[in-house]
Amino acid sequence: MSIRNWPVAERPREKLLEQGAAALSDAELLAIFLRTGVVGRSAVDLARHLLNEFGSLRSLLEADLSRFSSHLGLGPAKFAQLQAVLEMGRRHLAERIKRDSALESPQAVRDYLKAQLRHEPHEVFGCLFLDAKHRVLAFEALFRGTVDGASVYPRQVVKRALAHNAAALILTHNHPSGVAEPSQADRQLTERLKEALALVDVRVLDHFIVGDGEPLSMAESGWM
């Protein structure tokens, strides 16, 4: 049955306008993005099929062009549209954290770091550079490694902090395994960077590790 024949309250678009996006299932949200189905399948049926094929909404969103386009109802045009939507989301989050002190908006910082790093297949280490009032100056992904780890050089972190005239910063890196527990190497690296940056009067406020769930704060966990 076509979605047009569904009761109005059950149609994804109308449901979103009435109840908000959070009320929709993954399949309903994806159906709105798809807009149309294929022969024999409504947009919602197609969305459910695709979620089953990919295994999860996250897996679909993070698929590369080749894998994405190999599925029924998808192609380069939809891929380009999806990438534009994801980038708009990242830029929206970037604007949110630049309005206020990073310490006063911890959830906004977490959301931003998730958007920047969670989809990365390899380990990436970055810094959120802050001014004296802890407002965000910039974010940079400084080192990229393999799934086994990244080589991080304190001298380069200090150099970029000085280039931004930062007074403080937040360290971050992802764990492609999905487990956000800090390793002994993560703790040692954090201490090395704190010591190096202290020499130029730049404070390290936190080190977030991005995994599958919410980013873990080493400061909140008592490891800093």
UniProtKB/TrEMBL annotation:
Keywords: Hydrolase, Metal-binding, Metalloprotease, Protease, Zinc
Keyword Hydrolase on entry: yes
SUPFAM superfamilies xrefs: JAB1/MPN domain (SSF102712), RuvA domain 2-like (SSF47781)
Highest taxon in the source lineage: Bacteria
Annotated ranges, domain MPN: 102-224
PROSITE patterns hit by this protein: MPN (PS50249), UPF0758 (PS01302)
Record InterPro entries: MPN, RadC_JAB, RuvA_2-like, UPF0758, UPF0758_CS, UPF0758_N
UniProt-listed Gene3D superfamilies: Cytidine Deaminase, domain 2
NCBIfam families hit by this protein: PRK00024.1, radc
PANTHER family xrefs: DNA REPAIR PROTEIN RADC, UPF0758 PROTEIN YEES-RELATED
Family that this chain belongs to: Belongs to the UPF0758 family.
Protein name: DNA repair protein RadC
Organism: Serpens gallinarum
Record lineage: Bacteria, Pseudomonadati, Pseudomonadota, Gammaproteobacteria, Pseudomonadales
Gene assigned in the entry: radC
